[in-house]
Design brief:
Blueprint (H helix, E strand, L loop, with lengths): L1 H11 L6 H43 L6 H23 L5 H19 L5 H15 L3 H11 L2 H32 L8 H23 L14 H12 L14 H7 L2 H13 L4 H4 L2 H9 L4 H6 L2 H20 L6 H19 L5 H10 L5 H13 L4 H19 L2 H5 L9 H70 L1
Helix pairs in contact: 1-15, 2-6, 2-7, 2-8, 3-5, 3-19, 4-5, 4-8, 6-7, 6-18, 6-19, 7-8, 7-15, 7-18, 11-18, 11-19, 11-21, 15-18, 16-17, 16-18, 16-21
Length: 494
């Protein structure tokens, strides 16, 4: 029985103290994670479809040349940057159950539009506005997860959410291969066009589900499936966490001072701006471009084979997120060390071009580990900023925003499509990125420890002051009582 309890604790976190809390956790796991994961699945399905469409006929049909594929990704990233912070701040004033599905409908409609484009310039315009809409999902969900879950519950939920996007990437390759095989040429449409139509069809029902079932955040939830007792408990169980701020709304200019006057915004933003670039193996579909450039592989194989990297990314993300929650300290930094070392190993294997093709497959697959830091980094930021919900919203958005500021030009410089199949510049850039990730991880770890020590010293000083004032006050009261007693005795003797 004790072993079963330990396994349960490792896999799903601390067992809630009461039956009511267990029931509440089950409900929010189901309704929050189900919608957020489905939403992010459709989000990543759309992003990955562009890469898969490019190697499945879109390049030839739209007569794309040079780095136009990279430019599509750059323009999407620019839209993503523009929408990131405003989208997260909108969650402070518009209920998430309205905002998330509304943005999902916008990008779903634009996905349908992509199936009808006749030139690459039309894709540029569509992808910019899709970037704005899709930027609501990732950091917005991490903000919502941080609003509902305790630190010991947060890592694995963040991992499950992040993995749903990777599953979207995995499914996109399989879907494109199936569509190319069975729908290419049906009704006069190319297979890659059908891919965007199917993506849009998948997206719309998920948005409807969000409108109906998403519970917002604990302080504002009106979800019909939560009782009044469960609504109160959802707030109380987080208030019991030290320094946890669960309030919502009421934006003010003081937020700017709190954010810019503290190390958290700078440290966390720098951490993901750098470490997020380690995902370039997957985000630029380097393996798919390598397979197409070296030749000898069919279109379905080019779509299928990179799925191995995504599968390893999913396993790494879930295992690492679960492990960090199970540790007593909730330490997140070891995951970043793991992903950085994996990225260096993969880059070195690819740089040695004379190595056998099997080693290159190994290198690209192990590169999937570079995704493991994504969920962990945002869980870490949620913990660091737990005492200020508005600062937390801005920090989470800024982390992704600055990473995408780099993404806007990074692939054009280091991973242009014209560099396939070797990507020599890109591999050296990856090694540099992974080393920088190790350095910034140490910096954030150091600053967090310093803040904890300062808080502990402040709390100790406060306790000592209270103890000092206590006896003095008691002595003063005793003196007053003694003086009153003496006066009374003198009066009686007279």
């Amino acid at each position: 029985m004790a072993l079963l309890h330990k396994i349960r604790h490792f896999v799903w976190g601390e067992v809630p103290a009461t039956k009511t809390e267990r029931k509440l956790l089950l409900k929010i796991d189901w309704f929050i994670l189900s919608y957020c994961c489905l939403m992010y699945f459709s989000n990543y399905l759309d992003r990955s479809n562009v890469s898969n469409a490019y190697v499945s006929g879109m390049r030839e049909e739209l007569n794309m040349r040079g780095t136009q594929f990279n430019q599509i990704n750059t323009i999407f990233t620019c839209g993503y940057i523009v929408g990131m912070v405003p989208n997260n701040l909108m969650l402070q004033v518009v209920p998430p159950r309205i905002w998330f599905p509304a943005m999902q409908i916008v990008w779903g409609v634009l996905t349908f539009c992509t199936s009808a484009v006749t030139n690459v310039q039309q894709i540029y315009a569509i992808r910019f506005f899709q970037g704005i809409a899709e930027s609501s999902t990732f950091v917005g969900t991490h903000y919502v997860l941080g609003s509902w879950y305790k630190p010991g519950e947060l890592g694995k939920r963040s991992g499950i959410f992040t993995s749903s996007g990777l599953i979207g990437t995995l499914f996109s390759g399989v879907l494109q291969a199936a569509v190319y095989t069975h729908l290419n040429g049906v009704s006069g449409r190319s297979g890659w066009r059908w891919l965007f139509i199917i993506d849009g069809v998948i997206t719309m029902p998920i948005a409807l589900y969000g409108f109906l079932m998403f519970p917002d955040v604990p302080t504002t939830t009106k979800a019909f499936y939560l009782s009044e007792e469960e609504r109160l408990l959802s707030c109380e169980r987080l208030e019991s966490e030290q320094d946890k701020d669960i309030e919502h709304g009421h934006l003010s200019w003081d937020l700017v001072r709190r954010v810019l006057g503290h190390w958290r915004w700078y440290g966390c933003s720098l951490l993901f701006a750098v470490s997020g670039e380690a995902e370039s193996f997957g985000s630029n579909n380097l393996m798919g471009q390598w397979l197409k450039a070296v030749g000898g592989f069919t279109v379905p194989q080019i779509d299928y084979y990179p799925s191995g990297m995504t599968a390893f990314a999913i396993v790494s993300t879930l295992v690492c997120a679960t492990w960090t929650d199970a540790t007593k300290s909730r330490a997140r930094w070891p995951v970043l060390v793991y992903m950085a070392i994996s990225g260096i190993i993969a880059s070195v294997c690819i740089l040695v071009w004379s190595s056998p093709i099997g080693l290159k497959f190994f290198a690209y697959y192990i590169a999937g580990a570079t995704y493991a830091g994504q969920a962990t980094t945002f869980a870490w930021a949620n913990q660091i900023c737990a005492d200020d919900h508005q600062e937390r919203a801005v920090v989470l958005a800024s982390m992704n925003m600055w990473n995408n500021v780099l993404n806007a030009w990074w692939p054009l410089v280091f991973y242009p499509a014209t560099d396939a199949p070797r990507f020599t510049k890109g591999m050296w850039a990856m090694i540099g990125t992974c080393i920088a990730t190790l350095l910034v991880t140490w910096l954030v770890w150091h600053l967090e420890r310093r803040e904890h020590r300062e808080k502990a010293r402040h709390a100790l000083k406060k306790d000592r002051n209270a103890e000092t004032k206590g006896p003095s006050r008691a002595g003063s009261e005793k003196s007053v009582r003694s003086h009153a007693g003496s006066s009374r005795r003198s009066h009686e003797s007279v």
